[in-house]
Structures are given as structure tokens and as C-alpha cells.
């Protein structure tokens, strides 16, 4: 059987590492597939405005491009990866969408509040919030997880979701959507990513609880739980040997590409999922089968 485009790029990935977070997509070799050219938009998000955290690269970039194909305007929030962010802007604009990039640290509540102000000021509305940004710091020894690491992981991965969502809700209306990025580690755990997995478990509970809280408002809240995906977070987190092996232990025996996740976010943002809230879509190569 001929290998598909995703299997072929996985075979071409050599062991590599970056040693800094956030990672840079421009330094990855090969760069992730964020734009599936076979994916054709159908105006499912026409006239909508989306804010995507971690939108400069990886999953966030792929979602921004897919949203643009569906007619949405996009704001991307990121920390300091300016060149990556500019590439995302260009990609979104190539499909006719308007895109702004906003560099900020979303672990701080005042920055989250200002981020929503800036998006509303630019577009006049907000319809889709994608809480996607995250960090992870492996520690094989649980006792080596410091207070500073624990605080940074929780502030970036889950506190920011509370801050941004609280700031966004007054601007959301019936039919609008909140989509949170969880992880397969929330469901099967990870012995070397305990604090990260804990935040992802919190995100899953946050998604379910907030969905119930907002049910009467008509605002839907769902999540996507990726498995091993080829994003800057991988070479920024692990050593070269682990990067080379990344995703090889899944039933599909490969890592996924950001473009393979993006349609799940489109589905949850669009009217197609009007009867779906409090749910999680697992995109993980068979790495975890939920009950």
C-alpha cells in the first residue's frame, strides 16, 4: 500500500532538539504540515471572528488556516515567536481572511483582559475562542518538579483559560463556541509529564463543567485531545533521541500532523456541532480509545 503524505513526512524527520520554550516552527526540519491542500472550505465560519492562543505555530497555526478557509477572520496570540506568527498571518491572508497577531504572556490575567479588548477593538466581535497555548517540562523524577515549574505549567496551561474565558464570555452570544486543547495525557497519564498531564486533566474537567454552566446561554464548550503531534513543542521539550521516536508507539506507528487536527476544531466551531457540548474529540492515531 502506498504511503500517504503524512506517513512520508514522518519518515523524513531526523532526531533534533531546540532546547527552548516556546519552540520555533521555522527551525523544524521538516516543518509540520499545517495546511492540507486537499481540504476545501465551505464558508462554515463565514463572518465569524476567532481568537486562537498559541496561534503562531503548530496546532494553532493549522486551526487558523482552516478557519480562514471557512471564511473566518482570525486573531492569534503568542509569546515571542514573531517570525512564526508572521508566517501564520500570511497563510491566513492567502485564503482571504483578515489576521492580526498579538504578542503577550497569557499566564497573567491583565494580559488576557487586554487581549480580548484588542480583539474586540479590531474586529468588533468575538465568536470563537480557542484556548490552545501550552507548555510542558519533562521530569522523570516526580520529586524534581519544582514549585516554579509547577506554577509556570499551571499558569500557562489552565489559569490562562480561566482568565481568557472570563474576559471573553461577555462578548459571546448564542451559537458561539469555546474550544480547549486538552491532551491524550489527560486520559492515559504520562510518567514524565505529571504536572502537564494534571493541567490537561483540569482542562477536561473545566470543559465539561463550563459547558454545563453556559448551556442556557447557547454558548458551546468542547475540547480536542491530541496525541503525539509534530509541533514546535516536541523538539523544544525532548532530547533528540526522544524526538526521533516521537509517535512511534501509537497503533498507527507515526506522529500526527497539525493539519490532521484542524478539521476537528472547525467542526466544533461550526453549526455542524450545534448539538455537541461538554465533549472531547480524540485525535491520536489510536493511542487511546475512550470508553
Q: How do the helices and strands line up, and which of them pair or pack?
A:
Blueprint: H1 5-11, E1 49-53, H2 58-69, E2 73-78, H3 82-93, E3 99-103, H4 109-123, E4 128-131, H5 147-168, E5 177-181, H6 185-188, H7 194-213, E6 220-226, H8 233-237, H9 240-245, H10 262-269, E7 280-283
Parallel strand pairs: 1-2, 1-4, 2-3, 4-5, 5-6, 6-7
Helix pairs in contact: 2-3, 2-10, 4-5, 5-7
The CATH topology: Rossmann fold
- The domain tally reads 1
Report the helical percentage: 25-40%
Separate helix tally = 10
CATH architectural type: 3-Layer(aba) Sandwich
Give start-end ranges of low-pLDDT stretches: none
Output the helix-strand order.
HEHEHEHEHEHHEHHHE
Shape field: globular
What is the SS-derived class? alpha/beta
Mean pLDDT: 91
For the largest beta sheet, what order do the strands appear in spatially? 3-2-1-4-5-6-7
Calculate the terminal CA-CA distance, rounded to whole Å.
31 Å
| Approximate strand percentage | 5-15%
| Main beta sheet | 7 strands, parallel
Name of the CATH superfamily: NAD(P)-binding Rossmann-like Domain
Amino acid at each position: 500500500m502506498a504511503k500517504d503524505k503524512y506517513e512520508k513526512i514522518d519518515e523524513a524527520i531526523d532526531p533534533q532538539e531546540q532546547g527552548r520554550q516556546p519552540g520555533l516552527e521555522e527551525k523544524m526540519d521538516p516543518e509540520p504540515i499545517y495546511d492540507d491542500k486537499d481540504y476545501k472550505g465551505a464558508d462554515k465560519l463565514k463572518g465569524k471572528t476567532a481568537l486562537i492562543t498559541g496561534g503562531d505555530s503548530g496546532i494553532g497555526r493549522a486551526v487558523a488556516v482552516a478557519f480562514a478557509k471557512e471564511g473566518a477572520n482570525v486573531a492569534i496570540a503568542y509569546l515571542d515567536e514573531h517570525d512564526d506568527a508572521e508566517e501564520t498571518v500570511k497563510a491566513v491572508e492567502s485564503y482571504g481572511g483578515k489576521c492580526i497577531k498579538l504578542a503577550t504572556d497569557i499566564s497573567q490575567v491583565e494580559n488576557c483582559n487586554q487581549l480580548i479588548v484588542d480583539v474586540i477593538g479590531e474586529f468588533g466581535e468575538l465568536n470563537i475562542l480557542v484556548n490552545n497555548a501550552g507548555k510542558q517540562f519533562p521530569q522523570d523524577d516526580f520529586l524534581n518538579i519544582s514549585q516554579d515549574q509547577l506554577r509556570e505549567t499551571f499558569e500557562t496551561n489552565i489559569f490562562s483559560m480561566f482568565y481568557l474565558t472570563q474576559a471573553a464570555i461577555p462578548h459571546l452570544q448564542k451559537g458561539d463556541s469555546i474550544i480547549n486543547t486538552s491532551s491524550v495525557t489527560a486520559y492515559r497519564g504520562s510518567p514524565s509529564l505529571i504536572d502537564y498531564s494534571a493541567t490537561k486533566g483540569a482542562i477536561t474537567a473545566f470543559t465539561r463543567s463550563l459547558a454545563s454552566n453556559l448551556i442556557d446561554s447557547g454558548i458551546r464548550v468542547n475540547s480536542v485531545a491530541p496525541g503525539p503531534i509534530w509541533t514546535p513543542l516536541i523538539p523544544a521539550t525532548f532530547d533528540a533521541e526522544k524526538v526521533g521516536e516521537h509517535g512511534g508507539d501509537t497503533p498507527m506507528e507515526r506522529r500526527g500532523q497539525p493539519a490532521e487536527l484542524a478539521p476537528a476544531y472547525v467542526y466544533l466551531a461550526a453549526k455542524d456541532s450545534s448539538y455537541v457540548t461538554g465533549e472531547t474529540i480524540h485525535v491520536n492515531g489510536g493511542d487511546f480509545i475512550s470508553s
